[in-house]
């Protein structure tokens, strides 16, 4: 039987997968008081986890030598591994968890995997291993390492029986890492529904991660103080509390790492590449087209060739030339974002710099407009457009890593417009970007960048879409 701690009311947790997110989530559980047994296939990671937990006062953490050993006394098992292949391996291989899962325990899949995979795992548990007693919860997360550490992740949960979400031990674990339940979103629709909701959020993330790099690189080549540009786009209006129109969660989160000469590893390029790959597979399955997402994917794919394991803030360096055959370009520009921080072009006046910052902020907002539109199109393809569903996924994304100022403004209008989503986006485009000088300024930014051998692929694609909306 699964074991409940006698020292307190926290259940025994087996945690498999101690990469950046899993490390942060599991150590948060340990700090809270949960007895956690951790396992990672990579020995140095497991050693670092053990050392970190040893420094936590009254730690009740242990390490295991296999997934089976990690779960043998667990009430709740959390899987935060890289992909669905690793989920199957951790559960079903020779030393997999299934061989030691206590009766009636709950397995929570936190990994982002294809929406069809949770049902496949359920089928294998029941048919292949005769474990219908094991509860399975599909629970992908959003929010990054910082919110993992703080226990404030956005989590999208679903199951083949929604009563599983109310099982006391599983509920205790989930609520502890999701703002005491405030950012825990039950998604109806059975196993895989949580992954579908996460995929919707990842349309935004998959575009916003490279677009944050693209726009920061544009600031650098346009001789703007990159630190000032970051500060302008992330500072809320003192009177309204609103973020600037060009703000996105990803820009605010990745910006400091782009501005650092030695950024910490927080989220490898391979992670967003995997998530975007899931969406592209869903595009084919659902027969929907997401051109801007695909353009973002193409940029990420190029970075993967040389920087798969690097923090994805390195994408800015791809734009600045590390993938170029021109060695002189790489040497001159590789660290230009860092060099420009606090150092604008001396010959430029404050008025000129402020004008360029405003134009770049507007350009970034244009990308966000198109990413919001593609998100709405993807939601339609996923059949997530009933009133209660729309409200739910809007709340999830606007409060998670896919959030942007434009998304928070335009999506409610799209929901409420009697003329439909497309009409609402056209009206919003005219309202925010309809003046003649907006298109002209963004066009100038694109053309000027190309003259410097800098190709703003996302902005160019978004500009074409804006012109269509304004036509």
Automatic annotation (TrEMBL):
Pfam families assigned to the protein according to its UniProt record, in alphabetical order: NAD_binding_11, NAD_binding_2
Gene3D superfamilies per the UniProt record, alphabetical: N-(1-d-carboxylethyl)-l-norvaline Dehydrogenase, domain 2, NAD(P)-binding Rossmann-like Domain
Xref: PROSITE patterns: 3_HYDROXYISOBUT_DH (PS00895)
Recorded GO MF terms: NAD binding; NADP binding; oxidoreductase activity
Record domain 6-phosphogluconate dehydrogenase NADP-binding: where: 12-179
Span of domain 3-hydroxyisobutyrate dehydrogenase-like NAD-binding: 192-318
Listed SUPFAM superfamilies: 6-phosphogluconate dehydrogenase C-terminal domain-like, NAD(P)-binding Rossmann-fold domains
Protein name per UniProt: 3-hydroxyisobutyrate dehydrogenase
The organism of origin for this protein: Cladophialophora psammophila CBS 110553
């Amino acid at each position: 039987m699964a074991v409940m701690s006698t020292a307190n009311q926290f259940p025994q947790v087996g945690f498999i997968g101690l990469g950046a997110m899993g490390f942060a989530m599991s150590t948060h559980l340990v700090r809270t008081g949960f007895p956690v047994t951790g396992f990672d296939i990579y020995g140095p990671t497991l050693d670092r986890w053990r050392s970190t937990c040893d420094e936590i006062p009254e730690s009740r953490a242990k390490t295991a030598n296999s997934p089976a050993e990690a779960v043998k006394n667990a009430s709740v098992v959390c899987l935060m591994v890289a992909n669905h292949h690793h989920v199957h391996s951790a559960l079903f291989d020779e030393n997999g968890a299934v061989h030691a899962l206590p009766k009636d325990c709950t397995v929570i899949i936190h990994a982002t995997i294809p929406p069809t995979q949770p049902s496949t795992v359920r089928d294998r548990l029941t048919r292949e291993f005769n474990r219908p007693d094991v509860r399975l919860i599909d629970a992908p997360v959003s929010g990054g390492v910082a919110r993992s550490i703080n226990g404030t992740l956005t989590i999208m949960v679903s199951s083949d029986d929604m009563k599983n979400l109310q099982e006391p031990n599983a509920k205790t674990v989930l609520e502890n890492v999701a703002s005491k339940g405030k950012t825990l979103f039950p998604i109806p629709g059975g196993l895989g529904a949580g992954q579908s909701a996460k995929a919707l959020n990842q349309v935004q993330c998959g575009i916003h991660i490279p677009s944050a790099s693209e726009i920061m690189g544009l600031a650098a080549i346009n001789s703007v103080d990159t630190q000032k540009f970051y500060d302008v786009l992330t500072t809320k209006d003192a009177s309204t509390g609103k973020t600037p129109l060009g703000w996105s969660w990803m820009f605010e989160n990745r910006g400091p790492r782009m501005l650092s000469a030695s950024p910490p590893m927080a989220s490898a390029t391979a992670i967003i590449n995997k998530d975007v790959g899931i969406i592209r597979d869903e595009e084919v399955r659902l027969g929907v087209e997401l051109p801007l997402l695909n353009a973002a994917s193409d940029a990420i794919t190029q970075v993967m060739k040389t920087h798969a394991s690097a923090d994805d803030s390195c994408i800015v360096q791809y734009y600045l030339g590390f993938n170029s055959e021109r060695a002189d370009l790489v040497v001159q520009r590789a660290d230009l974002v860092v060099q420009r921080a606090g150092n604008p072009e001396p010959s430029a006046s404050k008025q000129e710099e402020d004008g360029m910052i405003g134009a770049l902020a507007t350009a970034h907002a244009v990308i966000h407009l198109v990413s919001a539109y593609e998100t709405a199109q993807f939601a339609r393809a996923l059949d997530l457009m009933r009133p209660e569903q729309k409200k739910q996924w809007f709340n999830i994304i606007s409060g998670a890593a896919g959030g942007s100022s434009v998304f928070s403004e335009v999506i409610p209008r799209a929901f409420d417009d009697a003329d439909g989503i497309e009409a609402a986006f056209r009206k919003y485009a005219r309202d925010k970007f309809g003046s003649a000088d907006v298109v002209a300024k963004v066009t100038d930014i694109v053309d000027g960048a190309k003259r410097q051998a800098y190709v703003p692929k996302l902005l160019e694609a978004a500009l074409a879409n804006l012109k269509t909306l304004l036509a």
